[in-house]
Write a structure and sequence with these properties.
The chain is of the alpha+beta class. It has helices at residues 19-29, 37-46, 109-121, 173-176, 209-221; strands at residues 7-8, 16-17, 35-36, 61-72, 75-83, 94-95, 98-100, 128-133, 137-138, 143-152, 165-172, 183-189, 192-201, 204-207. Strands 3, 4, 5, 6, 7, 8, 9, 10 and 11 form a nine-stranded mixed β-sheet that branches. Strands 12-13-14 form a three-stranded antiparallel β-sheet. A two-stranded antiparallel sheet has the order 1-2. Helix 1 packs across helix 5 (209-221). The chain starts with 6 loop residues before the first strand and ends in a 10-residue tail after the last helix.
Length: 231
C-alpha cells in the first residue's frame, strides 16, 4: 500500500502517521472487552480505566458503522451525518453512517457498514479503503455497534438519502485528536444522571455513542498519551 503522509499529531511531536501506522494502531489498540454507555458510567462513578460491557449478551442488536476518514489537502477529516428530524429514533442527532445488521449482510459487519454508508450517503463502497476497527460499543438502547475505520480519497460524489440524512459534513481529525475538545457531560434519564462524551464542532453537538467512538479513535491514534514510544 502506498506510503502517504496523512497528518501529524500536533503536540505529540513530529511523528507522522501513514495508513500502515493507522492500521497497526487500530490493531494494537483494539480491546475485545468493548466499551459503551454503562462502561462510561462505571468509569465515572467507580474510577475504572476502561471497563468492558457484556458484549456476549445475545439480547443486544448487532450493528455496524463506518468511521470515514477523508484525505483533504490540509489533513484528514472525519465524515459524519446528521439525521433528519422526523425519524422515530434519534431524530436530528449526529452519527456515523451505518445501521443494524440485516439478513442480506450474512453476518458480515464490513458488508453492513459499507452497504449502509452507500444507502445513506451515496458513497460507493468501492471508494472506501478499510484500515481496521475500533472497540465494539454497547448503547443504552440495546445495540452493540462495530465501528470500522476506512480512508476515502477525493474526488467523490455524494447523494444523501433525503428521508434519513439531513446533512453530510466533515470535522477535521485534528479537532478530534485535541483532548481540549472532549467534554464529559451528563443528563437526567429516568431520574438518574447519565454521563456521556460530547464534542462541539461549530454549531453541531456530537454526543453519545458517536462521540464515544471518536474518543476511542483519539485513544488509538494518540498512543504517546498512553506511553507508546514515537514511530
Amino acid at each position: 500500500m502506498e506510503q502517504r503522509e496523512l497528518f501529524s499529531i500536533g503536540e505529540a511531536g513530529p511523528s507522522r502517521l501513514t495508513r500502515e501506522v493507522i492500521a497497526r494502531r487500530l490493531t494494537d489498540g483494539f480491546n475485545p472487552r468493548g466499551r459503551g454507555d454503562s462502561a462510561l458510567e462505571a468509569m465515572v462513578l467507580g474510577g475504572a480505566v476502561r471497563p468492558g460491557d457484556p458484549i456476549d449478551d445475545d439480547t443486544l442488536t448487532p450493528a455496524a458503522v463506518l468511521v470515514p476518514l477523508v484525505e483533504r489537502e490540509d489533513g484528514l477529516a472525519v465524515m459524519l451525518t446528521k439525521r433528519t428530524n422526523h425519524l422515530a429514533h434519534h431524530p436530528g442527532q449526529i452519527s456515523f453512517p451505518g445501521g443494524r445488521l440485516e439478513p442480506e449482510d450474512q453476518g458480515d459487519f464490513t458488508t453492513c457498514a459499507l452497504r449502509e454508508t452507500e444507502e445513506e450517503t451515496g458513497l460507493g463502497r468501492h471508494l472506501v479503503r478499510l484500515l481496521g476497527r475500533l472497540d465494539d460499543y454497547v448503547t443504552g438502547t440495546g445495540f452493540i455497534i462495530t465501528p470500522l475505520v476506512g480512508v476515502i480519497d477525493p474526488p467523490f460524489a455524494l447523494s444523501p438519502d433525503s428521508f434519513e440524512v439531513a446533512e453530510v459534513f466533515e470535522v477535521p481529525l485534528s479537532f478530534v485528536l485535541d483532548q481540549a475538545n472532549h467534554q464529559l457531560q451528563s443528563r437526567e434519564v429516568r431520574g438518574l444522571q447519565r454521563p456521556f462524551w460530547a464534542l462541539t464542532w461549530q454549531d453541531r453537538l456530537i454526543w453519545g455513542a458517536t462521540a464515544g467512538i471518536l474518543i476511542n479513535l483519539f485513544e488509538v491514534l494518540t498512543p504517546r498519551q498512553t506511553g507508546e514510544p514515537p514511530e
